[in-house]
Amino acid sequence: MKTLSQAQSKTLSQQFSFTGNSSANVIIGNQKLTINDVARVARNGALVSLTDNADVLQNIHASCDYINNAVESGEPIYGVTSGFGGMANVAISREQASELQTNLVWFLKTGAGNKLPLADVRAAMLLRANSHMHGASGIRLELIKRMETFLNAGVTPYVYEFGSIGASGDLVPLSYITGSLIGLDPSFKVDFNGKEMDAPTALSQLNLSPLTLLPKEGLAMMNGTSVMTGIAANCVYDTQILTAIAMGVHALDIQALNGTNQSFHPFIHNSKPHPGQLWAADQMISLLANSQLVRDELDGKHDYRDHELIQDRYSLRCLPQYLGPIVDGISQIAKQIEIEINSVTDNPLIDVNNQASYHGGNFLGQYVGVGMDHLRYYIGLMAKHLDVQIALLASPEFSNGLPPSLLGNQERKVNMGLKGLQICGNSIMPLLTFYGNSIADRFPTHAEQFNQNINSQGYTSATLARRSVDIFQNYMAIALMFGVQAVDLRTYKKTGHYDARVCLSPATERLYSAVRHVVGQKPTSDRPYIWNDNEQGLDEHIARISADIAAGGLIVKAVQDIC
Q1: Annotated catalytic sites, by residue?
Q2: Is the pLDDT of residue 542 over 90?
Q3: Does CATH number 3.40.50.2300 belong to domain 24-223?
Q4: Percent of the chain surpassing pLDDT 70
Q5: How far is it, in rounded angstroms, from Cα 369 to Cα 285?
Q6: Region 234-296+311-341+355-559: CATH code
Q7: What distances in angstroms separate CA 507 from CA 186, 201, 244, 498, one per listed residue?
């Protein structure tokens, strides 16, 4: 019996190629980027191109000219002719203006912990370039083009999970991206298409030379929300997919429990027309259409069935009302993250049309912090709901006649069915609800001489969301395994064979077949998905399914109409 190790599973889940896998380029500078655009570049290797729009390019050049003129004239501008933060009262001479920017990279090179996933760093570079293309940051086009080059060549700086409080943006994480882009020192490392390399060597292989930062360029690169927002964009993308899969799992479970579709009738939900509730009910009608396992009661009729309940329990009957707020909440988060994606988030900002600069605080990542707090909370709610469905499936007194713990071969008395799998799921679900606790409202850090005396914790909230998403992918694998086994057993009760494909709705049959393919078990009529306990290690199946979800594989494709 072969099993998939945790290391192998992690490798599968991170097998993204970053060298131009999409035929359509993502253009930076003259159109708004979407979360899907970020995912295409960050995860799927879509090529990026800077716009050739003359007005956009002119503003970039004009903002650089503004900074150069300010340095020459000694105009007081924060972080250009002054020190940083609580030392902004220190005047910086023209001769020191460039050195100030390089020194900023060095004193912020303080990251700790594990490396961020490469896809999250790629998202950050894309968003930093997009921010600078507004022409309000005083940064050379040459430096912006380096981010384009890195993205298209599959060169990704190593960035670490600890270091940002989300106040003055992601200072510490962005110092690693900046140091790598300019080839500051061999201590800055990158991933060059799967190979670790120091930044100066990477530049040499790209036919680029190390670059000296000009006045404001270090601050423009490091003072912004791009890393937390890049992580957040990827997490929203993943959560939208996981929500679609969860809908599919619920549809499998309703069929396995011989539930009714009446609870999703439009009349009910038009009477309480929250958008998310309406969407969930409509999706469930579609997902259950033409199923032979569901009780079709959309005509409004309902009959007593022996001694069964006349209506389904709340986790089935109230599904739209429960999931509706979650769907609406994720939608709102997505809108806010897309605004952040397309924002200028450094300080000060340069208004080239009026030849003025303004000191402000667009670098504060509060929208990201609160949004990712809410995203984790919604993930916990979804896991809680699925956990209740699993409990119904595993309990004969509540499952409308399914075997205890969804036993396959009941003649083999030592079989325990999916009992261990449920225990594993029970260990994950409370953790996901725990991760749903907020951090944006906690732990004030009165950083660097009380200058950053309020902060968003947006970066930490986003990295916690990344962890929550990764855990939820494992939990979703367990929920899918329960759903597949349960519909096989329900099919047997109805037809005398175990091949659920003939009884499932067309929409859920696609999901069912995808799971079967991913775990390497073709459906048959003579046995369900899990027959004897000792014929497979279910840990291997969890690993394969979660890896497929993370990689956007067959299971994701099976629910793409729901996303």
Answers
A1: 78
A2: yes
A3: no
A4: 93
A5: 35
A6: 1.20.200.10
A7: 53, 51, 12, 19
